[in-house]
Amino acid sequence: MMRFLTSLLLGLTLLTAPVYAQNGPLRLELDQGIIEPLPFAVPSFVPDSPAAAQYAQDITRVVAADLTGTGLFREISSDAFISRVSSFEAPLQFADWKAINAEALVTGAVNVSGNRLTVRFRVWDVFSGQELGNGLQFAGTTDGWRRMAHKVADQVYSRVTGEGGYFDSRVAFVSESGPKNQRLKRLAIMDYDGANVQYLTDSAAIVLAPRFSPTGDRLLYTSYETGQPRIYVLDVDRVRRTELNTPGGTMSFSPRFSPDGRSIVYSLIQGGNTDLWKMDLASGQSVRLTNTPAIETAPSYSPDGSQIVFESDRSGTPQLYIMPANGGEATRISFGQGRYGTPVWSPRGDLIAFTKQNKGRFHIGVMRTDGSEERLLTSSFLDEGPTWSPNGRVIMFTRETQGASGRATLYSVDISGRNLRPVRTPDGGSDPSWGPLQN
Amino acid sequence: MNVLGKVVAVGALGILAACTSNDPSDLGGGFGNGANGGGLAAGSPSDPRSPAYFQQTVGDRVLFAVDQSTLTPQAQTVLQGQADWLLANPDFVANIEGHADEQGTREYNLALGARRANAAREYLISRGVAGNRLTTVSFGKERPIEICSTEECYSKNRRAVTVLTGSTLG
């Protein structure tokens, strides 16, 4: 008998199931330089009633889109299927799935009762005929169906790769419309795949660079609503914002949360000079972290909170530096040709993503935290502002096109440099901030 | 003719607001492109005491080289003219906007725009204008006036614009 681990989705709060006990032999090793995506089949999840039919179909499509969107998986079209899966409990004919070269198989069932939706699923290693992990079910309200699909896909990704997923996550960004010289900007939030866009501000004032808190409950951003760029913190659920009181300077920007969410690091301009400061959110007290005539901006904490990587032009051009989280001596880590900016520490702690400007082109790149093994992942007229997926495998960024009709679009790219793709948004998009996996 | 009429109309609104507000900053928010931005451009360009004269004849902006905030001799000449005008018209206050072209990250350009605005402000102060009449703001690369992606446009976008934001006349 298969045992089902059950997790309950109450409203949008989801209690995650215990980690599955064992792994089958099927394993996609992400660090081995994957060239060929892993072929998988996901027959439409089985609805247990006519009311569940549309949900079953939609959930199956989102699961498939999540997996293929990684560039690591290739979906086998249902046209090729030999077997049909008309019952979730019936034994599978693995030979039929082997025959069409499916290496992984995802089966599922959907139950709808009133506005309550339950999704059950299993992941199979076709060649061994073994289940990967245990069957699992997610339950919640019908309007949360996309999240449940993302949860299923995260489990599949995780069981096949051995790494955390990133599909049940949200991205905050700046929605852009209008020409370059009169661009209208609004803060917005959406699912990682561009669904469920919600606007958090109107376009009356320029807004820039939202940054998620570690738990995803708050956003820091910069707004010109007073006429000056200043930092605000916004409660995502209540869409309520508070201006943060920064000391003795009119302009503040480029804020980012500490990993414990209790303080922020940001840039403050005083007398035309930009330095880094840190603010304790409970007391509102700020302390200075840098004190140089150079520009210091774009700070980002290491995941353990002990260090800050930032950008400074103290050497004459913008370069990347790391200093202790309470300030002190900074060590330069970027030494390649060109100008480096907007460093962001990977959630895994191993890499720093950055923007590089060299010979008239912009690149998104990654390097180790000591500056070694620099790799450029993209190249265009203007790429900037990387943000990491929760598992540290994918980077989202802004790409702006050239000329009078130039337009900003969100893109994502795998840290291998493969799978560059636009992220669909209703209007233009810039300054993405990828939030954590949701609970 | 049409253009002139528009300038006068915007200017008239500005004067009205100046008379009803004790806070000159209420009139702020220009983007360094004159009437479009909401700064004062009041009066006739032929009246040397008018904001329109300041904007068009004295010159309200100075330009910078790539990634620079140092004032060129040409910029210093313009700023000297601005200082003379501000000293002769002590009732006006100004907000100096610093801008960058699109070559550079958003964050760096915000900081660079602040350097440029401050360079202009410091120069005006060195020529005798009281510091409390001069505020600054950086727009980074958020508000270019020219939208092509060539040096011809970039050179006009790398600027500090002195926007008259009000008159202290009560």
Summed up:
Chain A contains three helices and 33 strands.
Tally of strands of chain A? 33
Please tell me the CATH architecture of chain B by its name.
2-Layer Sandwich
CATH topology of chain B: 60s Ribosomal Protein L30, Chain: A
CATH class membership of the largest domain in chain A:
Mainly Beta
- Flag low-confidence runs of chain A: 1-24
**What is the H-and-E element order of chain B?**
HHEHEHEHE
Based on CA atoms alone, the radius of gyration of chain B comes out at 15 Å
| Number of helices in the DSSP assignment of chain B | 5
CATH homologous group name of chain B: OmpA-like domain
Low-confidence stretches of chain B: 1-37
Q: Could you explain how this protein is built, in words?
A:
The complex is a heterodimer of chains A (439) and B (170). Helices cover 9% and strands 43% of the residues of chain A. Chain A has 439 residues and is mainly beta. Chain A has two domains: 157 residues, 3-Layer(aba) Sandwich (Rossmann fold); 269 residues, TolB, C-terminal domain (Neuraminidase), CATH 2.120.10. In chain A, the strands form seven sheets. In chain A, strands 1, 2, 3, 4, 5, 6, 7, 8 and 9 form a nine-stranded mixed sheet that branches. In chain A, a hairpin with a 6-residue loop joins strand 27 and strand 28. The N terminus of chain A is likely disordered. Chain B is 42% helix and 16% strand. Chain B contains five helices and four strands; from the N terminus they run ααβαβαβαβ. Chain B has a four-stranded mixed sheet, sandwiched between helices. The N and C termini of chain B lie far apart (32 Å). The N terminus of chain B is likely disordered. Chains A and B meet through strand 17 and strand 25 of A and helix 4 and strand 3 of B.
